[in-house]
Amino acid sequence: MAQLPFIAVEGPIGVGKTSLSKKIAAHFEFHLLKEIVEENPFLGKFYDDIEEWSFQTEMFFLCNRYKQLEDIDKKFLQEGKPVVADYHISKNMIFAQRTLKEDQFRKYSRIFDILTGDMPRPNMVIYLHAGLDTLFDRIRMRNRDVEANIQPEYLHQLSEDYETFMDHFENTHPDIPVIRLNGDNFDFVKHQSDLDYILEEIKAHMNKGEVIK
């Protein structure tokens, strides 16, 4: 059965999730859901000392994303209004598995399952990926203070984690369309033709009846 569009744009840090989400929202007149990033008071400390500050950082993100999805469900999805988000709630587990100690991860997983068990999940995913040079170029361009100390090793591991996660996601959710885009080859900010291609891909999936307009 076709569903109201709830699109998630996902990918590693710096790949352009928010920029693309904004353009999708403007083109299709969808509500834009943006994740809270710089407001996380632990994030700068996290990049300085991942082991020390990972649990606090991930719990802050989880609680805020839970609240965002709860609000989105009540104010938009239940009212028949489409949404595009610059994250998928499952991203929390990607980061948690990479950064948390084993005992912390067990606690975190239980909390995650409780909070998100009945939350709405996106029914279309756009997955952006890119090489480290592209990611670091874009991170430098947006010049966020909290991202100044991101290490290449961490970003490389995270990119690999995303690839593993998306492969698993496609295998376990064959009913949810995934549009994969290589950020090394697509620059939808500078090139309208690249953006047009992405918008047409989204429209094609909606026209197939996988999600309704």
TrEMBL record:
One Pfam family cited in the UniProt record for this chain: dNK
Gene3D superfamilies to which the protein is assigned, alphabetical: P-loop containing nucleotide triphosphate hydrolases (3.40.50.300)
Entry annotated with the keyword Electron transport: no
Occurrences of domain Deoxynucleoside kinase (ranges): 7-206
Keywords: ATP-binding, Kinase, Nucleotide-binding, Transferase
GO molecular function: ATP binding; deoxynucleoside kinase activity
Naturally occurring in which organism (per UniProt): Salimicrobium flavidum
Active site: D86
Taxonomic path: Bacteria, Bacillati, Bacillota, Bacilli, Bacillales
CDD domains the UniProt entry points to: dNK
Domain of life: Bacteria
InterPro entries in UniProt: DCK/DGK, Deoxyribonucleoside_kinase, DNK_dom, P-loop_NTPase
Entry annotated with the keyword Cell division: no
Any one annotated GO CC term: cytoplasm
Protein name as annotated: Deoxyguanosine kinase
Protein family according to the UniProt entry: Belongs to the DCK/DGK family.
Binding residue positions for ATP: G11, P12, I13, G14, V15, G16, K17, T18, S19, R138, I139, R140, M141, R142
